[in-house]
Specification:
This protein has 89 residues and is mainly β. The protein is built from no helices and eight strands. A hairpin with a 5-residue loop joins strand 4 and strand 5. The radius of gyration is 12 Å and the shape is globular.
């Protein structure tokens, strides 16, 4: 089973595209929805163009591979983000 190691402090996701974060220039991000509601998470490129989005259901955790300059935000600050190493075998 692959595992990961967090390498930054977990942060509350920004909730607007203007506040979107690179998560400390991460290329791998762990995103966890700490709420019981579903929230959309969006990834933007360095020009603030939408690359894609996905819904995180309540209590869901996902690992996102992105470019270091790509930014992330979610519809609710209950989505938490941290830069990780992945995978560590």
């Amino acid at each position: 089973m692959a595992s990961y190691r967090p390498i930054t402090t977990e942060i509350a996701s920004p909730t607007t595209s203007g506040g979107a974060t690179t998560v400390s220039s991460a290329d791998r991000v762990r995103a966890v929805n700490t709420t019981t509601s579903s929230h959309v998470l969006t990834v933007l490129d360095e020009n603030d163009e939408v690359i894609g989005s996905m819904t995180l259901v309540g209590k869901q955790t996902e690992f996102i591979k992105k470019r270091e300059t790509d930014k992330i935000y979610a519809a609710n600050a209950g989505v938490r983000l941290t830069r990780i190493t992945y995978p560590v075998l």
